[in-house]
């Protein structure tokens, strides 16, 4: 049990990939704070996962783009468990439009959740990690940290930006054992993706089946979705990897969609 009693914060942990990572960490004995915009879902997820054990969870309502809420949430974790060992900065949304139709307010909202969220949660956790002698920060990137797709200007920009933030934290954190990684999944069937299928079909004027087969899985080697369990396994690997050897690195899990 490599994560036994490790104190972990997972943003966006009430749903999809974040929930799967929380489940994987708790199965390995971790204590996980599920920090989510939807406080009720965070509490519910924490109850369900604590019942499974052997680790445990608490739910925290947090908007990752709100500095006061982020600081209060991290303070609460430290008050309860004394430190922070692992931060998985995973909360995210998707908004798709052509650039010329992209409302500026929606561009700023997406960038704020992904980039301000990554920055603010890291900023709040790093002092605690330094004090404890180290820690692991994992950003949820995407194949869109490396590639572009039509209609996703804000998302692609944000996900590319997380690679830079991770590299920066790798440099600044090295002396204190604070290491960073970025996980870059291909398409994973979560509520975030289910919502995109009809939206993209409408915007591109094609069928939902074509969105899945040609757009989402068109470049994979086997036409398969990456699974939540796949991504959770990669997160566990990075969280449990104790030296600085892999710091600053990203890892793509995409069924061959992106291979570089
Ligand atoms: P999801 O919609 O299932 O879950 C996202 C969670 O984030 C939700 O619980 C939501 O309440 C929470 N959230 C949204 N805004 C928030 C905010 N401001 N503060 C705190 N929490 C907030 O989505 P998912 O597919 O599990 O996505 C999780 C992460 O994985 C995102 O960063 C996403 O970009 C990334 N990702 C997803 C896929 C995919 O195909 N699903 C692929 C690559 C990367």
Automatic annotation (TrEMBL):
Q: Name one GO biological process term.
A: monocarboxylic acid metabolic process
Query: A single GO molecular function, which one?
Result: 3-hydroxybutyrate dehydrogenase activity
**Matches recorded under PROSITE patterns:** ADH_SHORT
First-level EC class: oxidoreductase
Recite the UniProt keywords alphabetically.
Oxidoreductase
So what EC number does this one have?
Answer: 1.1.1.30
Q: Does the keyword Membrane feature in the UniProt annotation?
A: no
Protein origin, superkingdom: Bacteria
Fetch the InterPro entries from UniProt.
Answer: 3-OHbutyrate_DH, NAD(P)-bd_dom_sf, Sc_DH/Rdtase_CS, SDR, SDR_fam
Pfam families to which the protein is assigned, alphabetical? adh_short (PF00106)
List the CDD domains hit by this protein, alphabetically.
SDR_c (cd05233)
Q: Does the keyword tRNA processing apply?
A: no
Question: What family is reported?
Answer: Belongs to the short-chain dehydrogenases/reductases (SDR) family.
Q: What protein name does the entry list?
A: 3-hydroxybutyrate dehydrogenase
The species is: Thalassovita mangrovi
**What is the phylogenetic placement of the source species in the record?**
Bacteria, Pseudomonadati, Pseudomonadota, Alphaproteobacteria, Rhodobacterales
């Amino acid at each position: 049990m490599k994560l036994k009693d490790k104190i972990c914060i997972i943003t966006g942990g009430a749903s999809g990939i974040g929930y799967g990572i929380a489940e994987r960490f708790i199965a390995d004995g971790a204590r996980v704070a599920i920090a989510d915009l939807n406080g009720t879902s965070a509490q519910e997820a924490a109850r369900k996962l604590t019942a499974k054990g052997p680790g445990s969870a608490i739910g925290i309502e947090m908007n990752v783009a709100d500095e006061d809420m982020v600081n209060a949430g991290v303070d609460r974790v430290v008050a309860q468990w004394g430190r922070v060992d692992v931060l998985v900065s995973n909360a995210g949304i998707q908004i798709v439009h052509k650039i010329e139709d992209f409302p500026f307010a929606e561009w700023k909202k997406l960038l704020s959740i992904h980039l301000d969220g990554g920055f603010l949660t890291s900023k709040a956790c790093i002092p605690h990690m330094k004090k404890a002698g180290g820690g692991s920060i994992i950003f949820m990137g995407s194949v869109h940290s490396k590639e572009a797709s039509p209609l996703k200007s804000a998302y692609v920009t944000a996900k590319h930006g997380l690679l830079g933030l991770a590299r920066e934290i790798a440099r600044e954190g090295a002396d204190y054992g604070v290491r960073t990684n970025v996980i870059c999944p291909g398409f994973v069937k979560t509520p975030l993706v289910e919502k995109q299928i009809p939206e993209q079909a409408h915007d591109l004027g094609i069928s939902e089946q074509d969105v899945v087969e040609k757009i989402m899985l068109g470049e994979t080697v086997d036409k398969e979705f990456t699974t939540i369990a796949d991504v959770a396994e990669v997160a566990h690997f990075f969280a449990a990897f104790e030296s600085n050897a892999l710091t600053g690195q990203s890892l793509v899990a995409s069924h061959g969609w992106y291979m570089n």
